[in-house]
Specification:
Helix content is 29%, strand content 24%.
């Protein structure tokens, strides 16, 4: 049984947006719901009614109302949402135009930059006019190769105000990685910063971007934002213009917000691309708007007075998610740089200084901080922090316990999980509910999430496949250049017809929480029993001798054996004693089936650019199969260490 770590007080529960929303449901529909599980069950049984109330509760701004919420709540894919509605995403993000801070930008080693809602509106208005003047129109693509900085948000909102489609990559992507993405969608305009900062160094982006723009014949304008230099030399770049020269100089402009159908394209997001060209997932204006506002307002309990931070880059969906906080009128805190420079707790100092109320980061960041024996709650005043969010990979039980021990006792720790595909979560936080170690608090409202066994039947308290049995508004409307929808169907609906199959391995607990075990296509199958990799990582992370690890299954003697690769901490050796302690710990804390047949030392562990371990790529290498797109990796050279390892042939 999972350990109970935190329970909100009655007073705290009654102050949440979720509690108010439950009261609204009770009043409108004559219910008497007192708990989240009751509310969740009603929401999946009454999808149209749920989204009707949500639309009103979050104050969606639309010039024309909808005629029906959903045409067929059993149809997936292909359900039509909020038909007849006309709205604009950017208008919903810019409904506040006052002197409250909209963005605080903290670049590594720099003074914070503060932008009010009034200033943000003005900048977006001027940028939108410039885009229109150069011929950008509804449906055109506008892309960003940008650090996580205010001008990225401005460019996205300016594009969205016109009805152009936004797509972005972060500047740590390689040339091929950028072209694999933008080459497919053919942008008309590309925004780039002249450089970015990482680990105390200024890194140039213009040399890299020159290798990109020459292979993007669709590009009519390259807009260069000042960051590491005030005015870089861009004379060698075709169609390049400085941001200061591009943005209109007119004052007092009003934005002309194009009124668009609910399912008009807003974002193009990308799969990791480790098995070929990245899939280009097109997401809708209205779908992203209502889905993000549901997660921010209800599940994150975000309010106008909040300061919300998420450590992310513009190549990760959490950037899009964080940016939608503008629709609540909250202040978003952006950080760009290395999160451990100049020291391991730099982000927590920022949380103190900026009075962050919601602090978000990856599970990998929390694990790294644990390894460095971080104690941010001891060193900084974190009294403003009421919630910590974690995603990207499963947060270990020890990670949960560390947050309550070393950050703060009285806060909501929301481990959240979903995907780029839906630009949101399947399971996430419930500000009205308790937190149990290793467990995501709840399945999202109106998300009919279940764990399916191999017979396609829902199971409780058993590891099984993550599925969603009913449609939701933020599903991709289509994949780019997939006219017959075959790629889309294959991605989610081939395994269970009419049911979204996500490819994660989970347990749904009897109380309605969720435990994540990582990708199901990377699950291990020794003796025909499927087990998740997260349980092994959980044990390994407790070993101070080990800096990192990756575990895969190797086909061997008509079975599968578990192979654990470990990267040793500085000054540590992989001795027989360490191996024996590892095996004993895994046997005791997971099961005998989890115990690795081989424990092998490697110098590095491969990660995607979004900092997810690529178990599948390692598995392919040890099986002498090609890894098709190493440009999707942050450190592709790491894969070389897994080739032709003698121990794997005996």
């Amino acid at each position: 049984m999972s350990k109970l770590l935190w329970t909100p007080s009655k007073e705290r529960i009654e102050q949440t947006n979720m509690f108010r929303f439950m009261g609204e449901i009770n009043q409108r529909f004559g219910k008497n719901f007192q708990t989240y599980p009751e509310l969740h069950q009603w929401s999946v049984d009454n999808i149209a009614d749920f989204w009707t109330v949500l639309w009103d509760f979050v104050g969606v701004k639309a010039s024309t109302s909808y005629t029906q919420v959903i045409d067929d709540p059993t149809k997936m894919p292909g359900a039509k949402w909020f038909e007849g509605a006309k709205l604009n995403f950017a208008e919903n993000m810019l409904k506040y135009r006052d002197d409250q801070l909209a963005i605080v930008f903290q670049g590594e080693g720099a003074e914070p930059v503060r932008i009010t809602y009034a200033q943000l509106y003005d900048q977006v208005a001027r940028l939108a006019k410039s885009l229109r003047d150069m011929g950008v129109k509804t449906g055109d693509r506008v892309a960003g190769f940008m650090p996580n900085m205010p001008q990225t948000v401005m460019a996205m909102l300016a594009a969205a105000s016109i009805g152009a489609i936004w797509s972005s990559c972060s500047p740590d992507f390689g040339i091929k990685g950028v072209l694999d993405r933008f080459g497919q969608i053919k942008p008309k305009v590309l925004f780039t910063a002249n450089g970015y900062r990482f680990k105390g160094k200024d890194l140039d982006s213009l040399e890299k971007i020159s290798g990109v723009v020459n292979q993007l014949p669709s590009l009519e304008k390259l807009v260069v934002v000042p960051y590491t230099q005030e005015r870089a030399d861009i004379s060698a770049l075709p169609n390049a213009i400085h941001f200061q020269d591009f943005i209109s100089r007119e004052d007092g402009l009003e934005i002309e917000f194009e009124q668009l159908p609910f399912d008009h394209p807003l974002y193009i997001m990308y799969s990791s691309g480790t098995t070929g060209l990245p899939k280009c997932m097109v997401q809708s204006t209205g779908g992203i708007l209502v889905h993000h506002l549901k997660e921010l307002v209800l599940h994150t309990d975000l309010k106008r007075e909040d300061n919300i931070f998420y450590f992310t880059t513009c190549g990760w969906m959490m950037w899009n998610w964080l940016t939608s906080s503008l629709g609540v009128g909250a202040t978003i805190i952006q950080y760009d740089g290395q999160p451990f420079h100049p020291d391991a707790e730099v982000l927590w100092k920022m949380a103190q200084d900026e009075k962050v109320t919601v602090f978000g980061a990856s599970a990998g960041y929390i694990a790294a901080l644990m390894d460095q024996e971080g104690q941010p709650g001891k060193h900084y005043d974190l009294s403003s922090v009421r919630a910590v969010l974690s995603t990207g990979s499963p947060l270990s039980i020890e990670g949960f316990e560390w947050v309550y021990r070393e950050v703060k006792e009285d806060l909501q720790l929301a481990s959240i999980a979903g995907g780029t595909d839906l630009n949101g979560c399947f399971a996430l936080g419930n500000p009205m509910g308790p937190v149990y170690a290793g467990e995501l608090q709840c399945r999202g409202l109106a998300m009919d999430v279940a764990a399916f066994d191999e017979n396609g039947q829902p199971v409780i308290n058993q590891q099984a496949e993550l599925v969603c049995c009913k449609p939701f508004p933020s599903m991709p409307i289509y994949f780019w250049e997939d006219p017959d929808g075959k790629k889309y169907h294959k991605a989610y609906f081939d395994k269970y017809p009419g049911v979204w199959h996500h490819g994660d391995f989970i347990t749904v607990t009897e109380r309605g929480g969720v435990v994540m075990y990582g990708r199901s296509d990377a699950t291990l199958n020794p003796g025909g029993v499927r087990i998740g990799t997260a349980e092994i990582y959980r044990v390994v992370e407790n070993f101070e001798e080990i800096a990192d690890s990756v575990v895969v299954g190797q086909n061997w003697d008509n079975d599968v054996r578990v192979i654990l690769f470990v990267k040793m901490a500085e000054g540590q050796a992989l001795t027989d004693d360490v191996i024996n302690k590892l095996r004993a710990g895994i046997r005791q804390n997971a099961s005998p089936r989890h115990v690795p047949a081989k424990v092998i030392e490697v110098p590095d562990v491969p990660y995607t650019l979004n900092m997810k371990k690529v178990e599948l790529a390692v598995k392919k290498v040890i099986e002498n199969k090609p890894v098709e797109n190493t440009d999707a990796l942050a450190n592709p050279q790491a894969l070389d260490f897994y080739k032709d390892i003698p121990e794997l042939s005996k």
